[in-house]
Amino acid sequence: MSEDNTRRGGTLGQPARLFWAFSEPFLTSAPDVRKQRGRIAREVLPVVWSWIGTDIIPTHFKRLEDVVEKAVADGSVSDIATGIVQMKKVVGPVLKQTLIACRDNPAATRKLIAYTGNDNLLGHVRDICDAMEIEPVLARLVTAFPIPLSDPAVPDIEDMFEIITDGADKAPHCHDMIIAGAIDRFEKPAHALRLAHYGEATDSADELEKSPSRIIIDVLLFDLEHAAENVIVSHRANGWSSTTFDRIGTYYSLATGIQRELVLTEGSRSAKVVAKLRALFAETFSAEFENVTGELRRYLEPLYTGDLSTEPSFSEAERIGDVLTAAVHLKSLASELGLYAVVERARKECSERIDDANSLILELIRRHSGTERENARAYLDATVPITEVLQGREAGRIVRRLGAAASTVGDSPTRTFAA
Questions:
Q1: Does residue 127 surpass a pLDDT of 60?
Q2: Does residue 73 contact residue 82 with C-beta atoms inside 8 Å?
Q3: What is the mean pLDDT of the chain?
Q4: Beta carbons of 215 and 82 less than 8 angstroms apart
Q5: Which of 156, 321, 340, 351 qualifies as a cystine partner to 335, CB 3.0-4.6 A?
């Protein structure tokens, strides 16, 4: 087989047929994908990879854009919109998994690097996907949607589609922008998803799956799922914060809102996304809140041993405080995930430990001088964010009394402080 035939698919069939034949069995659950990865890499990846790098990215999606432009001009977008959404759902994940599957394929790696100019292949997966020009195509559909809704309480299709696509032209990594846009635009995200009810009320059963409302929901679910996965992966690597947990809670609420509003069956895509997020968040919450008590104990260990030779880490204390902030603010979500006991235990144990530590700090300030006394005072300052979380409204009063007591010990040895 000549090199040119290999690039174009050769005797294995037309590129499109090869690609879809490759894609269909691949789009299954994550465990199945992992099982299939080796077989796919051995049998078809070299050919598919060559075709993606030389044909589909530079030409196929340009042709698709031309078709969309004509459809927009004609005011007929339902069929092409459905096709675009399916391509977004299929090509993006397939290309990403293809990159991962052939990370050890030097020839494939060289070909894609030559095309994209990216030396860090796996680190630029999204940049490569962006080159397929899927998002700009979706964005062009915004102007094609009419404004058919008369009920001002229900957002119109154009508004919702604009929310979904608005981030595409502004940043390549647009998942978070899409979700943030949906949340910022509508006070109650689930209310926006009543678009699907509009589709059910105006479309026949045969037309429903092609309706703009369902297309929009499909896109939102796709981006929601990837946004949730991205925030989990990112913050596992970079550390957690209360903002992270708030975002996780918002994603979960939005997903459950989709499921509730659409009243979909247990096997629907919405239900699967909700179940996936539930499992993902439950695992994350459980591990983080189980660990935070131990982290606080290790952080405060010098106070119990009397070893004050090292100044405490303010950033570490803030991180612990952030996790506890999430524990306090997300009680209802934790309860829904079956983790209320874990969260409450972490909050209670940390509260008791920080109270003991605050009293111990004052004793250490009395006993020491110089650097050790300054480090003890630094512990008092560093634990302020934790105290504020655990004591609520009492935090300001407690911290002020602690500071006042710490400032006078040494000058007045008989002065004591009771938290």
A1: no
A2: no
A3: 55
A4: yes
A5: 340
